[in-house]
Amino acid sequence: DIVMTQTPLSSPVTLGQPASISCRSSQNLVHSDGNTYLSWLQQRPGQPPRLLIYKISNRFSGVPDRFSGSGAGTDFTLKISRVEAEDVGVYYCMQGTQFPYTFGQGTKLVIK
Amino acid sequence: EVQLLESGGGLVQPGGSLRLSCAASGFIFSSYDMNWVRQAPGRGLEWVSRISGSGNTTYYADSVKGRFTIARDNSKNTLYLQVNSLRADDTALYYCAKDRTPGAGNFDCWGQGTLVTVSS
């Protein structure tokens, strides 16, 4: 199975400041179709997960442009340019390249 | 508006069974692969199973293989998960999730979840 490792596991951030979360996979995530199925999800307290970014860097519909994704191969990053109060929650990376699909442990974003 | 609504969870004894359902609306259900993902209390996300749009192809996590069965009824726009031989570590909130595009492991819509509690 592909292991997804996120760092940090907790990220205290000041409102208006940037935040960055790293995700590393134990195997290259390039699919045989040429796509890299690495996505980022946000889970606000008491809510189901919500898709933010798919295929490394594509923002899903309705996601603010302060969220951006980057990376390739086995190393990926989610960045929030200016954290807002509504960004509090847990962020997960997920690989959908190979079965079983796997998630990172989650990174908890908290406001300082 | 795309919506997914799970039901069927509850309290069940170890070794028991349940059938979870996920009613879909707002999209052409038969055109999309669907998944079940679970989350144990206070824990992270674990992918459980996937089914193709036609229902012909299924995949399972090793932790549930042989005990859980995913199915769909495209005439009813409903996804199912039959969960048998339940164990305490199956206790979790079970979400259904829609794939963004066929064959892609990107989940663009999630239900609110249905809670399964396995306890004597």
Counting DSSP E segments of at least 2 residues, the number of strands of chain A comes to: 11
**Alpha-carbon distance between the two ends of chain A:** 36 Å
Number of helices in the DSSP assignment of chain B = 0
**First-last Cα distance of chain B:** 40 Å
Please provide the ordered H/E string of secondary-structure elements of chain B. Answer: EEEEEEEEEEE
For the report, how would you describe the main beta sheet of chain A? 7 strands, mixed
Q: Taking Cα atoms only, what radius of gyration of chain B do you get, to the nearest Å? A: 13 Å
What portion of the residues of chain A fall into strands of 2 or more residues? over 45%
Low-confidence runs of at least 5 consecutive residues of chain B: none
Q: Figure out the total of helices of chain A.
A: 0
Low-confidence stretches of chain A: none
Average pLDDT score of chain A = 97
Helix content of chain A: under 10%
**Which range best describes the helical content of chain B: under 10%, 10-25%, 25-40%, 40-55%, 55-70% or over 70%?**
under 10%
What's the count of strands of chain B?
11
Q: Helix- and strand-based class of chain A?
A: mainly beta
Structural class of chain B: mainly beta
3D shape of chain A: globular
Q: Strand portion of chain B, in percent?
A: over 45%
